[in-house]
Amino acid sequence: MPPLVRYRIPIIGHTFSYLFDSVEFFAQCRKEYGDIFSLYIWGQVRTFVGKEHIHEVLAKDDVFSFKEIIRKKIPGDAMYAEGFGDSRYNIMVIKEYISKRLEIYNERMQTSLHSSIQKYFGESRESKVFHNLHYPLNKVVAALIANIFVGEEEAKNDEVIATFAEFTSDMAIFLAIPPILDFIYPGLQDYINRIPVRLGLYNPAAKHRNILVKHIKKQVDKRLKERKVCQDSWERPNDLIQEFIEEKNFDPNNIDCAAIADKLAFIIFASIITTSRSCTNAFIDLASRPEYIQELYEEQLQIAKEADKSGILPFEALDKMKKLDSFVKESLRLTGDVVGNPHLVLKDYTFSNGLQLPKNHVVDLYFDDICQDKSLQGPNPKSFEPFRYVNKNSPASKISKDFTVFGGGKHACPGRFIATTQIKLFMHNIILKYNFRTESGKVEEKLRIGPMTFPSACGVIFEKRNATN
Ligand code: HEM
Question: Helices marked H in 172-256 — which ranges?
C-alpha cells in the first residue's frame, strides 16, 4: 500500500492541512514520502499520485475511472433516465459533430463573440471597472456553446443562455457540499445528498431540462416543416440538434425532445464552466501583467489584417496566434489546482513501482508535481512566462507528459480544441478592442478553496482603444 502520511488528530487526520495549507502541505508530503502517498481526509484514506505515475492512472481506464466519481457524487441517474449518458457516445458527439466541424462554426463563434463583448463591455471611451469577470465571461462562453449545440436562433434567447450558463453550477452543488458526514461513515454524504433528488423534492436539473426541451421542440418542429416545404432548396442548419435529428434512430413520427435535451446535459456540464473559468483566468493573468499586452496586441493587429469587412477571421488565422496560444497555455498550466481529477479504482491494482491499491479506493492527481516541476517545465517553473511555448510545437490543446490540464490517455478531454479556440478568439478580440489592467495595479491571485482555485473577483479597468493605441 502507498505510505500513509503521519497525522496527529484522530478522525480529522489531514483534513485541515488539505483545506487550509494545500500548496505547502502537499510539497512537504511529496518530499518525505515520494510521488505516491495517502492522506486521511474527510474520514477516508485517499491516495495522491505525482508525476512519475500520473500517466499510469490516465492510461489505464479499465482500472481508474473519473466518470465513476462523478456518477457517485452527482445523482445524474436520479435526474435523468439515462444518467449522464454513455461516455463513448458523448465523446463521439464532441469529436465528430463539433471538433471535426469547428471550421464550419468559425464565423458564428466570432459573430457571437463580437456581440457578447459589445453587450457586456460596451463601446464607451471612458474607463470602466468590472469586478467578478467570471460572471459575464460565463455568459459569453454559454452563448458561444449554445450557438453550436442548439443553433443560432435559440442561442440568442436569454433564457437559453442562462440555462447553459447556470446548469453546471446548479449541478455542482453536489460537488461543493463538504462531505462532513463521511467522518461518520465513508460515502454517507453522497448517499444523503441523493435522497431529496430520489424523493423528487429537489432536482437542480429540472428547470434547465424544461427550458431545453421547449426550445429544442420549437426547432425540431420548425425544421421538419421547412424541410418538407422547401425540399431540395432547404438550407440545412449546422448544430447538434440537427446532428441528432439525422441519427439513424431518430423517428420523426415519435419525436422525443426530452431525450435530445438529455443528450446535451453532460456535454453542457463538462463544457461551460471549465472553459469560462480558463478564459477568465487567462484574461486576469494578462490584466495582471500589462507589460505583455503590447506584444500580444501587435500580433493580433497583424492577424486582424486577414479579417473580412465584418471583422471575421478565416479559420486558419487561429494557427497564427502563436504568442497568444503560448500565453493561454501558460495560464492553463498555472491554473493553481494543487490536486484534482479524482479517479475511482475499479479493481485491485499494482503500480509499476510495486505499490498496491484496493478496489473502490480513490486516487487524486497531484497536478503541482507536473505543472511546477523544473525537469518538465524548464527554468523557473513557478513563474508566469507567457512566451514559454513559442516555437516549441506545443499548442495549448496538446496533451503531453508535462501538460495534464486536459487529462490524458483515452479519456483526455475531447473538448480541448473547441475550448482553446474559444479562449483564443475571446482574447484576440478583447486585446484588439480594449486596454486593460487590474484595478490594484498588482498581479491578482486566484481564489483558493482547499486545493482548488477559482478566478479572482478583482476589479479590472477597461479602456476602449483609439484607432492609434
Ligand atoms: C478549458 C476547458 C476545459 C478543461 C480544463 C477540461 C478538462 C477536462 C479534463 C481534465 C478531463 C479528463 C477527465 C478524465 O481524466 O477522465 C475532461 C474530460 C471531458 N471533457 Fe473537458 N475540459 C474543458 C473543456 C471541455 C469542453 C469545451 C467540452 C465539450 C465541448 C468538454 C467535454 C469533456 C468530456 C465529454 C469529457 C469526458 C471524456 C471521457 O469521458 O472520456 N470539456 N475535460
Answer: 173-176, 188-198, 206-230, 240-245
Is 461 in a helix, a strand, or coil? strand
- Reduce the DSSP state of residue 396 to 3 states and report it: coil
First-to-final CA distance of the chain: 61
Binding residues for heme: 413
Ligand 1 mean position, distance from CA 434 (Å): 30
Cβ of 163 closer than 6 Å to ligand 1, yes or no, is no
User: Which domains does the chain possess?
Assistant: 15-464 (1.10.630.10)
| Beta carbon of 422 within 6 Å of any ligand 1 atom | no
Q: Report the distance separating Cα 130 and Cα 125, nearest Å.
A: 15
Q: Give whole-number Cα distances, 221 to 159, 228, 238, 242, in Å.
A: 19, 11, 16, 12
Distance CA 226, CA 62 (A): 46
Cβ of residue 168 lying under 6 Å from some atom of ligand 1: no
ipTM field: 0.99
What is the per-residue pLDDT across 22-63, written as a single tens digit (0 to 9) for each? 999 999 999 999 999 999 999 999 999 999 999 999 999 999
Cell 457516445 locates to 89
Cα 93 from Cα 88, distance rounded (Å): 9
Quick: pLDDT tens for 391-446.
999 999 999 999 999 999 999 999 999 999 999 999 999 999 999 999 999 999 99
